[in-house]
Amino acid sequence: MSEEWKSVVGYEGLYEVSNLGKVRALYRIAEHNARWGMTKMTFPARELKICIAINGYCYVKLRKDNKSHHNLIHRLVMRAFVGISDLEVNHKDGIKTNNNLENLEYCTSQENQIHCCRILKKKIGEANGHAKLKQADIEKIRNDKRFLREIAADYGVTLQAIHHVKSGKNWGHDKI
Fold it and tell me: What's the angle, vertex CA 150, arms to CA 146 and CA 156, rounded to 5?
């Protein structure tokens, strides 16, 4: 696959992104506020350093109008080559640092979770070693009509954990 470059959406004329997940700043002449006043400076074209966040996703820092923003590479690639969407971006192979256009796709949140569990074999429910609740407890919690704090005290978890179970935010994989 040959490398193709397109303007970063929202940063046209300043930055470009490639279908292989690289980002570069374009050559430009701009005014800069130096100690002795405003001066014109040239900024050469260069490839930007890609950073990796704590969650494993790659990002770059882009500047516009004297403001700096962190931008996730996989979102930049999809916006430039496919278009803007409210959907989530999924890495087909599950590798968060592989921002090649062929490895990315738009999908719903539910499709992304299904991909994570079924394709990438992420452990959910009791199989997750950090789970404090068991599958048998979940139905009992959902049918329990007492106050959330009473249920939480019985199971040794937080009130928020019980709320998430009852609302389907946590332990919702059994409904997929």
Answer: 135
Q: Is the dihedral of CA 122, 163, 172, 85 positive or negative?
A: negative
> What does each of the 176 residues of the chain score in pLDDT, given as a tens digit?
799 999 999 999 999 999 999 999 999 888 878 888 888 888 899 999 999 999 999 999 999 888 999 999 999 999 999 999 999 999 998 899 999 999 999 999 888 877 776 766 565 556 565 667 777 787 788 888 888 888 888 888 888 888 888 887 776 655 54
The structure tokens listed for 72 are 């996730």
Are residues 80 and 95 in contact, defined by beta-carbon separation less than 8 angstroms?
A: no
- The DSSP element (H or E) to which 67 belongs, if any, is strand 67-72
Closest among 21, 17, 67, 51 to 8, alpha carbons compared = 17
Q: Residue 89 and residue 78: Cα distance in Å, rounded?
A: 8
Answer yes or no: are the C-beta atoms of 22 and 1 closer than 8 Å: no
